[in-house]
Each structure stands twice: as structure tokens, then as C-alpha cells.
Amino acid sequence: MSEVQPKSILSEEAAMKLRAASLRPTRQRIAIAERLLDGRARHVSAEQLRDELVAYGQPMALATIYNCLHQFEEAGLLRPVHHAGDAVLYDTNLGDHHHFVDVETGELIDIDPGEILMPELPELPDGFEAESIELTVRLRRKS
Amino acid sequence: MSEVQPKSILSEEAAMKLRAASLRPTRQRIAIAERLLDGRARHVSAEQLRDELVAYGQPMALATIYNCLHQFEEAGLLRPVHHAGDAVLYDTNLGDHHHFVDVETGELIDIDPGEILMPELPELPDGFEAESIELTVRLRRKS
DNA sequence: TTCTAGTTTAGAATCATTCTAATTTTCTTG
DNA sequence: CAAGAAAATTAGAATGATTCTAAACTAGAA
Question: Which of A130, B58, B80, B132 pairs as cysteine with B31 (C-beta 3.0–4.6 A)?
Fold first, then answer.
């Protein structure tokens, strides 16, 4: 064989997105970007992501996954959702939208942005700026 | 002395509220009820509550505090807020209102209900009922 | 007063997340 | 391409909130 080919087009795309975000396209970051930055809307926890990476043949240290998720968050590539169960979930959907939370499982369900009229921002306390607005409807399965 | 007097009026009130909620008025539950069910709006974590109880001369096991907070929550006497830092905060204000969260400190600030028009409930997924709606505006101190 | 179910308790256990210090990679620059 | 510095990754320990456990205590009924 003359040359190692890139594993897939996505892999190159992922590397480009990383460079655009000033993140070195390491093997680990590329593997994560391939899963999470492919345009599909998802909610993942660090542990879920690890299992997925293992299944995909790209196991890596949990610490690395946490590092990457934080870096992706700071780069604006992912959005953390703090309202679910114990674990933080990362949302690949960066658009303006909100969530139902199944109180029992911690699972998130997107609320269609058309279905709810977003409230206007109330006046903020002095010296602060709004970082995000989250509207969460906690759901319980009917008995 | 002929009789042991109740420590305070609140103590008796607290016991009544507990009985009304089908919770035995134990020494520990009364101490907590006195602090949290006196009508003032507050946000407390389990650890903060423990410090307060120690300062008040009513130290008790952290496990008991967690137990009580959960029981009070189930009885509808307190409302948990999951959006803050790592720890769950319990809100003594049961009215319809929402929160600012200082992202750095985890501190909650009530949003005056008059200042924001509550969004209508979106259509819920089948088989679920809404347990609560939380609107949270995450704040960061301006640099 | 006695009994029993309901409570409290100290301390161990758990779970998500962060930290640490050592090893490995990436990306220059020569 | 070789070498080195800076950036990343890693295993495993540490942390912090919360839950669990099993034993000791207490409230309220009889």
C-alpha cells in the first residue's frame, strides 16, 4: 500500500471543524467529533459517549472524554444541559430550543421550538450578562 | 417548674405542619421545619442547612437532612431546583416563579413573576404529565 | 409501661467529575 | 526527515454530593 487513506470523509471534515475551532485534530478529538458533530441532534453523557467510542473501536480515557467535551463546549460546538439526572448531557443541537425531561430516566426530549412561545428575557441583575436560557418541563409517566 | 414549655410558637406550628403532611413531628423534622417553613423565600442546599442547624444548636446527621428534604419535597412543602451548581437547592417559595443562576457561584436569584410572561405549556408527549416547569436564565458576571 | 413501626445515625459505598503526574503526540523549525 | 517544546492523553487517585446499610433510638398506640 502506498498511503494510509483517511478513514472516511467525515474524518477529514471533523479535523477541519477542529482546526476551525483552534483545537488540534488529535485522534481522540476526531473520533468524538465524528460522532457528535455530524449534524444530527443528540443528547449524550460522557459515559454514553465512552461506550459508543468503545463500540466503534476507539476506546479512550474517560478523562479525555471529559476534556474534549469541555473544549467542544467552550468552542461553541456543543451545549451542556444541566437539568437532567445526575450527569450533564451535551446537546449537539445549537439552535434555540428547549427540553422535556423524563424525571425517572433523566432522558431529554426536544421541545419543538414552534410549539412554545419563548418568553422575553426579564431585566437582568446589574453587572451580569445572560449566558443561556433553558426552559425545562419535567415529565412523569402517568400512572 | 411545673411544665416544659414549647420552645417557641413556631415549634408548635412546625409540628402542626408536619402532622398535616403525615410526617411524625420528630425533633429533627421540627428543627428543619422551623428554619424552612416559616414563610420566608429561600434556597438552601443540604450542606448549608446542616451548618445552619449546627449554628442553631440542633446538629444532626447529614443523612437525616437528606431524608427530611426528600420527605418535605414529596409532601409538597419544598421544591427542588436542579439547575444550580452541583448540589440540589431546595426552594421554600412554592409559588409560580423562575430563577437566574449565577454560573460561577451556583447562587439562585428569583425572577419576579411579573417580569416575565410565562410560556404556555407545549403539547406533552403521550403518557406523560408535567411535574414542573423551570425557566432558568444562566448569568455570568460581566468582565 | 411496653411494644412496634417509624426514625435517626455513623460510616461505608456510589457515581459523576476533576485532578495529578507521567507518558505520548503533534507540530514546528532546522 | 530529526529534534524538541508545547499540547494532549492517560491511569488511577481524589473529591464532593448523595445514597445506602445495619444498628440504635423514639414516638405514639395499646
Answer: B58
